[in-house]
Every structure is written in structure tokens, then in C-alpha cells.
Amino acid sequence: MQATTEAKIDAKLDATSDHALARAWEALESVPDPEIPVVSIRELGILRAVRRGVDGRIEVVITPTYSGCPAMSQIAEDVARALDSAGLAPYRIETALTPAWTTDWIGAAAREKLRAFGIAPPTGPCGGGAQALHEQPLTFVPRSAPVCPHCGSPRTERLAQFASTACKALYRCNDCREPFDYFKPY
Question: Please, what sign has the CA dihedral across residues 35, 41, 43, 45?
Fold first, then answer.
């Protein structure tokens, strides 16, 4: 009888934990990237995990787009605000630098949102997905010029290696002459 009661309590705790984690994922789904508000931190792959810690607290793991990303403190504050609003305290926010973030973690829908916002999404895979555990060179410039997000022309030129943020380069379309940011693949 004692073992059955303990099993029921454990099952109830697991169900409560799963519900809280699901609520946390839901609350964090709408946290926008502070530098590119058209996409969420989850869509960009910055939000890596929501789990229970050994102490029972919710743990949120975020990974910067690069190790010196100045937006990480703002992202952590936005995560905390979303969890507080959902009534999910106590929690812990961790920044993980490994595995390093890669543009491979940006989903197709987020790439389309970037394009619609006027930012050319990264072209092609970088090979840095979750399955890539071996060393690889980082690529900070496109293998080929990005397509203009405004008119779709492939005739573009790079104006500067860095744009509005360090993870983007500044390009201009040779046809419509509009400048645009290009999210560098790495």
C-alpha cells in the first residue's frame, strides 16, 4: 500500500512538472529577439532548453548567437519577465556557450519572417546542427551573395562585413538599389 501511494505521488509530481514545463515553453514562445523583434528567441534557436533542475526549479537554457552578443542580458531579462508573468517562479536562467549557436538552428518559418522583415536569411546549411559534434571551420561570409529580400534579385554586393549587429553584414541590391542586412551563416 505504501509503495502504491508513493507511486501515485510521484506520478502526480511528474504530471505537475510536465504541465509547468509546457507552460514555460508556451510563455517563452513569444519572447522576441531584442535586435530582430520579428522572430522569437525560440525561432532563432537561442532558447535551447526548458527543464527541471535537480532542485525542482525550472531551468531555461539560452545560447548567444555569438559569445560577445550584447543582447544576452536583455534576453535573460525578457525570459525572466515572461516566466514571472506566467507565475512560474522559482526558475534559473543559464547561458550555455556549447554547443555553439549556428544559423542551422533557424527554422524555415523564421527564415521567411526575416526575409519579409527585410533581412536576408543565411543561405545554405553551415553544418553546425545538433548532429555535428566534430570540429568545423566557421564561415562568416556567404558562400555566394545573398538574394535581395526586397526584390528577389541575386545581383547583390557586400558593403560592410558588419551591419546593425555583428551577426549580420550590410549588402545592397544592384537592381533595386536597396540596402539590407544579411544574417551571416555560422
Answer: positive
Q: Are residues 61 and 39 in the same domain?
A: yes
In tens, the pLDDT along 94-105 reads 999 999 999 999
Task: Compute the distance between CA of residue 110 and CA of residue 102 in angstroms, rounded to an integer.
Answer: 14
Domain of 31 in residue numbering reads as: 2-95
pTM of the full structure: 0.75
Cis peptide bond upstream of 146, omega within 30: no
Q: What is the pLDDT of residue 137?
A: 56
Cα(88)–Cα(28) distance, integer angstroms: 11
Q: How many domains does the chain have?
A: 2
- Cβ 171 vs Cβ 155: under 8 Å: no
CA angle 70, 75, 80 (to 5 degrees): 145
Cell matching residue 77 = 531579462
3-state secondary structure at position 37: coil
Residues of the chain above pLDDT 70, percent: 80
CA distance 28 to 115: 23
Residue 75 in contact with residue 4, Cβ under 8 Å? no
Q: 91 with 118, same domain? A: no
- The verdict on 145 and 80 lying in the same domain is no
Would you tell me how many other CB atoms lie within 10 Å of the CB of residue 151? 12
Which position has the grid cell 535551447? 48
